[in-house]
């Protein structure tokens, strides 16, 4: 069993295809795992992405699987990483799990907020232009109205 073995599930009320597109974005990948080098192991389209993890002291895999559920999708995030060389002391492994879980949750909840806001944003009515009216009237543009 990997020494860092996490599963985080996040429900997002948005189109699964939109989520899969966002998950595949290299910018999100960098935000999720800034300390590791990731190489795409499997690009699964609307089902997400799996990466190989390498770093100065770790090796393993990580993935985000997009599962359509109801009016949205669940992002199943898996992290399976081992240290290169000796195993981590148990206190360090616990600390690393807590820290990695908290970081991933912050980033995934940020993705959730942005995606749900974008998919449910109301269409705003047209912004009215400057008032118009007959010359010399209060509504006329030359009557002191400054946009």
Write the layout of secondary structure elements.
Elements: E1 4-12, H1 16-23, H2 26-32, E2 37-43, E3 48-54, E4 58-69, E5 72-83, H3 90-120
Region (Disordered): 118-147
Biased composition (Pro residues): 125-134
Protein name: Polyketide cyclase/dehydrase/lipid transport protein
What do you see in this structure?
It comes from Stackebrandtia albiflava. This is Polyketide cyclase/dehydrase/lipid transport protein. Residues 118-147 are annotated as: Disordered. The protein is an alpha+beta fold and 147 residues long. The protein contains three helices and five strands, in the order βααββββα. A hairpin with a 3-residue loop joins strand 3 (48-54) and strand 4. Strands 1-5-4-3-2 form a five-stranded antiparallel β-sheet, covered by helices on one side. It has helices spanning 16-23, 26-32, 90-120, and strands at residues 4-12, 37-43, 48-54, 58-69, 72-83.
Shape: elongated
CATH topology-level fold name: Alpha-D-Glucose-1,6-Bisphosphate, Chain A, domain 4
Percent range for β-strand residues: 25-35%
Total strand segments: 5
- The portion of residues assigned to helices is 25-40%
Topology order in helix (H) and strand (E) letters? EHHEEEEH
Rg result: 24 Å
Instruction: List segments where confidence is low: pLDDT < 50 over at least 5 consecutive residues.
Output: 121-131, 137-147
- Calculate the terminal CA-CA distance, rounded to whole Å: 65 Å
- Counting helices, strands and paired strands, the structural category is alpha+beta
**Domains, number:** 1
The CATH architecture term is 2-Layer Sandwich
Biased composition (Pro residues): 125-134
Protein name: Polyketide cyclase/dehydrase/lipid transport protein
Region (Disordered): 118-147
């Amino acid at each position: 069993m990997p020494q860092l073995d996490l599963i985080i599930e996040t429900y997002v009320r948005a189109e699964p295809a939109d989520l899969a597109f966002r998950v595949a974005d290299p910018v999100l990948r960098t935000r999720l795992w800034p300390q590791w080098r990731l190489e795409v192991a499997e690009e699964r389209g609307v089902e997400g992405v799996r990466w190989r993890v390498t770093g100065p002291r770790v090796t393993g895999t990580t993935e985000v699987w997009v599962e359509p559920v109801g009016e949205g999708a669940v992002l199943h995030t898996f992290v399976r990483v081992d240290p290169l060389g000796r195993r981590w002391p148990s206190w360090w492994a616990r600390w690393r799990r807590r820290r990695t879980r908290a970081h991933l949750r912050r980033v995934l909840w940020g993705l959730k907020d942005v995606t749900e806001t974008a998919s449910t944003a109301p269409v705003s009515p047209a912004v009215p232009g400057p008032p118009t009216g007959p010359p010399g009237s209060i509504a006329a543009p030359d009557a002191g109205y400054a946009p």
